[in-house]
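thread from #wetlab-drylab

HS: before we spend reagent money on co-crystallization trials with uridine-5'-diphosphate, can we at least see a predicted complex? here's what I'd submit
DV: go for it
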Amino acid sequence: MKIVTIVGTRPNFIKAWPVSEALADAGHEELILHTGQHYDYTLSRIFFDELNISAPCINLGVGSGDQGYQTALMLEKIEQVLLKLEPDLSIVYGDTNSTLAGALAAVKLHIKVAHVEAGLRSFNRRMPEEINRLLTDRCSDLLFCPTDTALANLKAEGITRGVHLVGDVMYESVLKVRDMARRSSSILERLGLEPKKYLLATVHRAENTANMDRLINIFTALRELAKNEPVIFPLHPRTRKALSTAGLIPGAFLPFGLDGLRFIEPVGYADMIRLVEEARGVLTDSGGVQKEACWLSTPCVILRDETEWVETLSFGNMLAGYTLESIIAATACMPESIPENHSPLDHASMRITDILTASFG
Ligand code: UD1
Ligand code: UDP
């Protein structure tokens, strides 16, 4: 079977990694189409190099832009590539603009679409990701759900055909990289950190970075927390732009420290997983990082009002919103440790590959 995998952002690459390996093991031909939504070395190429992911057969170089512009440009360019490649199937991951554009381009050409991480809902339609999820699921022939909640969300929307509960591919990614990280990552030494004596923070959601009040609240809370212990902040370019526009940090140079609050360049996956595993706690608005913290038994404060990953709340993750007081209070409640949390379903990539093979050959 000839498969085109459509990716474009950091979390897309990390999710596609285990599935690409399973597809190769099963003897399928996979071509990777990179939209170019992420293009900095530390947001894109680093993952292909580090995780040994096959190089994209094409990079569309779409780059950054407003929602409609970026999605439309991808749609136009992906269509041309799919017309040339004539795959039997296209696979898309998660909820980014690359995901939606890939699904839409394929379904209109009558190419089968498989969506990995189907059924996730925040029920907040102001998030671009929520619109991407809703529409991608509508375009998909096979919908691979990571959780029971995702399955129930699809059922509530009347989507039951082609739906499969397979587990979370990111759980596999974490397990695959964790041992490698323990062996080879020197990030703690490079940053002069001691295990369990620092906090790790990431913020990049548009809902936090485009709202000045929220951005200032989060930033002030992190500065406050950094009076007691180092707070390491791998800085997403969206947030870097927002903070420097607000005059809160200088735009150009990283690493940059404000007392204990330390901004660093985005890191590779092994370094990131090492940082998550050894942190005393994590504060994040990232979908992926909140799950990784949970699976690595690191307490996690979610810098949002809601989460698609509701299961993580029952394992100890806390929703803190974005006021100064709520973030400080939630961080003060972080337990010393949390029990080891395993995803109920491992080997999602094998399950996905088996279903794809049985469905389309
Ligand atoms: C996108 C996804 C988001 C995901 C995130 C992962 C959408 C709507 N959002 O958000 O769901 O969580 O990726 O990190 O698809 N930029 C650079 N260099 C890059 C890429 C971006 O400087 O390589 C800057 C540009 O100024 C750009 C901004 O970051 O305007 C935002 O990039 P964009 O791809 O639009 O969205 P993300 O915030 O990365
Ligand atoms: N990540 C990384 N380096 C970083 C920050 C994040 O490797 O500097 C990884 C993180 O561990 C997770 C993925 O990128 O696997 C999540 O991406 P992001 O937070 O950008 O997107 P989201 O998951 O919110 O869509």
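DV: The first helix runs from residue 10 to 25.
HS: ok that's useful, forwarding to the group
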